[in-house]
Specification:
Layout lengths: L9 E2 L2 H21 L6 E7 L3 H17 L2 E7 L5 H13 L5 E4 L9 H7 L11 H9 L7 H12 L8 E5 L6 H9 L8 E5 L6 H6 L3 E4 L17 E4 L3 E4 L7 E4 L4 H4 L5 E2 L6 H22 L1
Parallel strand pairs: 1-11, 2-3, 2-4, 5-6, 5-7, 7-8, 8-11
Antiparallel strand pairs: 9-10
Helix pairs in contact: 1-10, 2-10, 6-7, 6-10
The structure holds nicotinamide-adenine-dinucleotide.
Length: about 300
């Protein structure tokens, strides 16, 4: 059996691709505004003091400026009531200047996240979490696709990776990553047309399933759980996981770790995403794309 060497491994560089795509979106926004339309406007609602959530929201808001969008950040302390949060959501639904908005998850424990998701107008649900958008995704109908799996599909597409007939194994069945990812990969199209196995916390012989994967997507949140002996030679490995792992030698006191043990696994792969700089930036650019789509749809309505 031939051994794949590190030189054969190609990096799926989400950072570089997302920069290219932000440039494309910025050009489209310039044309849109030159045609007399208002700049697309994304709002983000951030509840509480969670450091990771704050970082994600900051990135999203900064990216809006990069592509010429308006952005609004609404911040409230963790002691907000469900009623107060729903009032904010209803206000954004009714505000004609807002094209799309997100409520950053996770929410503090006393809040009912599902009720909040269901309160968002599906036409402004640029995170794609509302049951209407999830249902459209399951049925293969147009709608907003959650940003992380959408970003992964774009990455596969723009890297020219042929997914036809491949066996894809997705680890993790969350409604924001694993489940929509499995649906998108199994859908008819390119990328798509995969035979998909969806693994989760109750899967028996996870390593055995993973070894069968031509495309392996890890979306669990357990740092470096995927090791080389779980990966088929030549596989395409997409690492969605982002966990802050304490490291006193790091500037911020922590490092970001993916679900894949990169150093161990990369030499076996044909393609692999790094963490950071892989799926994360593609998530943000997909959110921007969804917001531009929402702005265009509103204008047509
Ligand atoms: P989640 O906690 O909602 O879901 C985790 C899933 O992993 C569950 O479905 C569970 O069944 C499965 N799981 C748990 N332990 C397992 C095990 N031992 N074996 C197999 N499956 C197991 O998490 P999520 O929201 O889907 O996020 C997953 C990871 O992706 C997290 O690290 C999160 O930070 C990261 N994430 C990254 C981005 C990005 O833009 N890169 C976006 C969203 C989430």
């Amino acid at each position: 059996m031939s051994q794949t060497t590190m030189q054969d491994t190609r990096i799926l560089d989400g950072k570089a691709l997302s920069e290219t795509m932000k440039g494309e979106i910025a050009d489209e926004v310039k044309e849109w505004v030159a045609a007399g339309h208002p700049a697309p406007h994304l709002a983000a609602v951030l509840i509480g003091e969670d450091g990771a959530s704050r970082t994600y929201v900051d990135h999203k808001v900064r990216s809006c400026a990069r592509v010429g969008f308006e952005s609004t950040l609404i911040q409230r302390t963790a002691d907000i009531t469900q009623e107060e949060l729903l009032e904010i959501v209803h206000g954004l639904n009714d505000d004609p200047s807002i094209d799309g908005f997100i409520v950053q998850l996770p929410l503090p424990d006393h809040l009912d996240a599902q009720a909040v998701i269901e309160a968002v107008d599906p036409a402004k649900d640029v995170d794609g979490f509302h049951p209407v958008n999830m249902g459209n995704l399951a049925l293969g109908l147009p709608g907003f696709v959650p940003a992380t799996p959408a970003g992964i599909m774009t990455m596969l597409e723009r890297s020219g990776i042929d997914t036809q007939g491949k066996h894809a194994v997705v680890i993790g069945r969350s409604s924001i990553v694993g489940t929509p990812m499995s649906l998108l990969l199994s859908r008819s199209g390119q990328p798509g047309n995969c035979t998909v196995t969806l693994c989760h916390s109750r899967t028996v012989d996870l390593a055995g399933h993973c070894r069968e994967a031509d495309i392996l997507v890890a979306a669990v949140g357990r740092p470096e759980m995927v090791k080389a002996d779980m990966v088929k030679e030549g596989a395409i490995v997409i690492d969605v996981g982002i966990t802050r792992v304490e490291d006193p030698t790091a500037k911020r006191g922590y490092r970001l770790k993916g679900d894949v043990d990169y150093a161990d696994v990369a030499p076996r792969c044909s393609w692999i995403t790094p963490v950071p700089g892989g799926v994360g930036p593609m998530t943000i650019v997909s959110l921007l794309r969804n917001t531009l789509t929402a702005a265009r749809a509103k204008h047509r309505a």
